[in-house]
# Entry
Amino acid sequence: MAQDARIALQQFIASLERHLEAVVSRHGSSDPAVEQAYYQLEDAFLNYEEALGEKYEEYLPIALAEEEND
# Structure
């Protein structure tokens, strides 16, 4: 069961802000803080989209990038 859409939105916004802060204060090209913020942002996005879908049958016009496996 998805959480309340408004709470999920607030968490998504907070994740966007944390990701920006991690990028701005990045230490090198492979900073683990940026990677962690990226995955938290991804999770928050999916939680928000799920909450919208379950409660309102609405979806975001955004898709996550697919990882290419060589």
Summary: The chain has two helices and no strands.
